[in-house]
Amino acid sequence: MHRLTVELADRSYPIFIGQGLLGRSDLLVPYITGKQVCVVTDDTVAPLYLERLRHTLDGYKVDHVVLPTGEAYKNWATLQQIFDALLARRHDRGTTLIALGGGVIGDMTGFAAACYQRGVDFIQIPTTLLSQVDSSVGGKTGINHPAGKNMIGAFYQPKAVLIDTQSLGTLPDREISAGLAEIIKYGLIRDIAFLDWLELNMPALRALEPGAITEAIARSCAIKAEVVAVDEREGGLRAILNLGHTFGHAIEAHQGYGQWLHGEAVGAGMVMALEMSRHLGWLSDSDCQRGVAIVESAGLPTRPPTDMTSEDFIRLMAVDKKVLDGQLRLVLLRQLGEATVTADFTAAALDATLRKEYS
């Protein structure tokens, strides 16, 4: 088992990574202060893992909320179901919420925990590859708005993150590829040696070879924990974790949340960021193509939907959390392994990137 720590002074918390951890009460009990627990999950994950977790939590008063599956339900109406259940079952300020599921469940449970009685504890148990390497770590919580993804939420850190790699065995190939998008991102933005490793091990990762997938998760979480420790609330450095996301969020909003998986949209978005970095003269043609090839090798799309226009992108990217004082900022690459957040690009460079997608 790997154990990492997100260093945030008195709010620091552990990340446990390994096989069979869902049955390890010793990894959960130290982070539950009261006797009430509410497990929030969805109708895909509940039949697979809810009873196992309830057994692990023997001795606690355990309630659960089962939400509908998918990004399309990451909204106010679904969030309200969590509050309704907590109030109906009289959960007090000592309760602990546990997010059992993918990124949608983790984001909504964390946001509910931040709001309920002005803040209660929560624990992340991510069950998808994407949530294990990204959304479960770092304290970003929230819901979508029709005009923009994750535009309503809060920074609110969990007490612990429990990553059981055995849960990956029930995922379809498409979900594995979606998770690999975020893993590739870490190599592109901050760790060229990791990028080299990913190129060599991509077949093993797609096959969920235990040693390879555990190593990839651990290295991804370590990079994210390092960045979050420096910049918890995305005032500077942390924004580099959004490589490809401004383009990708536009794709998700345009297509309708859930039509493209988040990782699929990020995959196409990272290719667009690579292309734009090349247009600006920061990446060579060969480095750009190398990045595109890694994305493609993970089974991810490298082009956005054919029904999106450059005008669609411009309109949707204007509603993005990285817009500051009316100016769009993008995460681009100075070189492979070195990302920057910048508004220092011309409209012509952005237009060239967008137009290439439809030429």
TrEMBL record:
Query: What is the protein name stated in its UniProt record?
Result: 3-dehydroquinate synthase
PANTHER family (UniProt xref) = 3-DEHYDROQUINATE SYNTHASE, 3-DEHYDROQUINATE SYNTHASE, CHLOROPLASTIC
Q: Which residues form the 3-dehydroquinate synthase C-terminal domain?
A: 179-323
Record's keyword terms, sorted: Amino-acid biosynthesis, Aromatic amino acid biosynthesis, Cobalt, Cytoplasm, Lyase, Metal-binding, NAD, Nucleotide-binding, Zinc
Q: Where does NAD(+) bind?
A: 103-107, 127-128, 140, 149
Role according to the record = Catalyzes the conversion of 3-deoxy-D-arabino-heptulosonate 7-phosphate (DAHP) to dehydroquinate (DHQ).
**Record-listed E.C. numbers:** 4.2.3.4
- Belongs to which family? Belongs to the sugar phosphate cyclases superfamily. Dehydroquinate synthase family.
Known NCBIfam families for this protein? aroB
Report whether Metal-binding shows up as a keyword of the record: yes
Q: Where in the cell is it found?
A: Cytoplasm
Species name: Halopseudomonas xinjiangensis
Q: Which pathway?
A: Metabolic intermediate biosynthesis; chorismate biosynthesis; chorismate from D-erythrose 4-phosphate and phosphoenolpyruvate: step 2/7
One Gene Ontology cellular component term attached to this UniProt record is: cytoplasm
A GO BP entry is: amino acid biosynthetic process
Identify the residues that bind Zn(2+): 182, 245, 262
Key word Nucleotide-binding present: yes
Q: Which cofactor does it need?
A: Co(2+); Zn(2+); NAD(+)
Q: How is the cofactor bound?
A: Binds 1 divalent metal cation per subunit. Can use either Co(2+) or Zn(2+).
Q: Name one GO molecular function term.
A: nucleotide binding
